[in-house]
Every structure is written in C-alpha cells, then in structure tokens.
Amino acid sequence: MNNVAAQVPAVSVPPTASPAEVRSLNDWLMRMHQASVNRSYVGTFVVSAGGSMSSAKIWHVCEGAQQVERVETLTGAPRSIFRHNDQVTTFMPEHKVARSEKRESLGLFPQLFQSADSRIADFYKFRQEGLERVAGVDADIIMLVPRDRLRFGYRVWSERKNGLIVKLQTLDTDGKVIEEAAFSELQLDAPVSMSQLIQMMGKVQGYRLDKPALVKTTAAAEGWALKTPVAGFNPMSCYKRPASAAGSGGKGANGNGPLQWIFSDGLASVSIFVEPFDRQRHVRESALSLGATHTLTRQLDAHWITLVGEVPVPTLQLFASALEHKR
C-alpha cells in the first residue's frame, strides 16, 4: 500500500469555543450565507490556484424562495451552467451535450457556508481585520483561523452593507495563500431577468441531453462506516449511481455503480467516492493537489476509494484509514 495513504497523523483536540465566540462567528457566517443567496448581482469571478487562473461571468437572481444562477466560463473549454434551485443544467457546446441533474444546494455561490452546524467555532477562531475596497465595493475583512491542522484557514472579504463575499483566500496550515477567488468587477442589485435565465436553461435543442441517475441513500445502507469520526466533519449526504447509468468506466465485476459520501465541517467539504476495484484502470495509489483541493486514492479490499476535499492531505488520510466496509 502507498505510504502516503497509509500514514495517519496524530490529532490534537481543539479547545471548545465560548458561547460568545460561537455567536459572533455564526452571526457573520449566516450574514454572508444569506447575502450569497438573497442578493441579485452580475459579476466576473477569477480563481487563482496552483499556478493556474480561471474566470467566469456570473448572473444571480433571487425572487422570494426562487433562485436562478447562470455561470459562463471565460477560460478553458466553453461551458454554461444554469441552476434553478436544486436543478442544474450544464451545457458543453464543444460536445453538444447538456447534462441535467438535481443537486442538493448547500448554499449557492460562493459555497462558504456548508451547513447550519453551530459548532463551527469549536474548530475555527474568528477575528476582524479591517476594511478594503474590492471590485468597487467596500468590504470587511475577516479571518477564520483553524484551531487544529486538519483544516485550512480563510481570509474573507464581505461587502460591508449586506455581507456578500467578494473575495476569498484559502490559507494552508502555515498561513500561506494557496488559492484565491475574487470578483474583478461586480454590479450589485443588477436587473437580472429570472424568466429569461429559466428560458435559456430550457433550450436544449441540438444537444444530447444527459440525465445522470443519482439515488439518495445512506452510507450505512450501502455497508460503509467510519471506525472513528474525523473531528468536526459531519456526514451531509450520500448518493449512488446505478450500474446501468454508471457506464463501463464506473462499473465493476460486481455490477455496482460508484458511491459518493459527503462530509463538511461547515466551511470545508470532503467527498469519499467508492467504486469496484478495476485492475486495468486503477493502476497505483496517489496523492494530488491543485490549490486548496487535494485528492487521495487507495485500494480497500475489492474497492477503489477516491477522497477529494479542500483540506490538508493528513485529513484525507484520517478519512481513508477510518473507512471500513461491513459486508
């Protein structure tokens, strides 16, 4: 077995946050979360990670409980992504394919606030760092400093009036910036037409419509568990793709499709993907990184495990070592 995957780091338990710390941090996070879903805006968003840069144009509109978002990539392969509440359609014009799927919304872009877990303050310290102008708006700067080395830190710029996140830096365990995302231009309360975006989302003529079949399940129902929990990370959801929809790439000799088990500590997320081991495709275990996103692969008996998360590699190693199959 690959030593990278096998080594398990020692973990110290972070101190429990005071009620005042919990309240202060949760107030800020909720304010930013509400602004990300309730504000209408148009902007250009730029992400820098691992020496590469990508950008996209974003249209976001909210009317009551209805939310619609359009994202057009400006770099790399052309791609248009539309989201109407939990329905997402991705257009890939180079291949003339449109993928339509339901996704549980953990909060629309930017997805900083992943859950309503009030214990986030047990794992992150919070402090304000002043005021700065970003994309033409005044923004408060706050720091989210991890209390242990199992998660990254964040420096967040949130628009002063309503709290919309306009810039976000992810910091490694030594405080170095490893990923940055920011609006380069932003128009708040822009006159975005929800009906027009919904109409554009439905124009799939000329595209091959792909509807991945995802079935909501639980890890326990599929025979999977963590022998020991990873501090602060709670299971959020679990999906499996039926073998008939998985295609030859995700279907093994036992006929099962891949499984995705999602965890979050309220800010960072980790996904565990499980599929049957295929000797031809799964050549060697590995650890990869791009900016804040790390990927770890390993074999577990007759299964191939892929762990992906915006967390340090040792955190993925803890998940990998704790994962067990009970069937």
What does this protein structure show overall?
With 327 residues, the protein is mainly β. The chain has 2 domains: 19-208, outer membrane lipoprotein receptor (LolB), chain A (Clam); 212-325, MucB/RseB, C-terminal domain (Phosphorylase Kinase, domain 1, 2-Layer Sandwich), CATH 3.30.200.100. It has 5 helices and 21 strands. It has a 12-stranded mixed sheet with strand order 7-8-9-10-11-1-2-3-4-5-6-12. A 7-stranded antiparallel sheet has the order 13-15-16-17-20-19-18, covered by helices on one side. The chain has a two-stranded antiparallel ribbon with strand order 14-21. The model is unreliable at 1-6, 106-111 and 245-255 (pLDDT under 50).
Provide a compact summary of the structure.
The chain has 327 residues and is mostly beta strands. It has five helices and 21 strands.
Q: Keywords for this structure?
A:
Phosphorylase Kinase, domain 1, single chain, mainly beta, 2 domains, 327 residues, 21 strands, outer membrane lipoprotein receptor (LolB), chain A, 12-stranded mixed sheet, 7-stranded antiparallel sheet
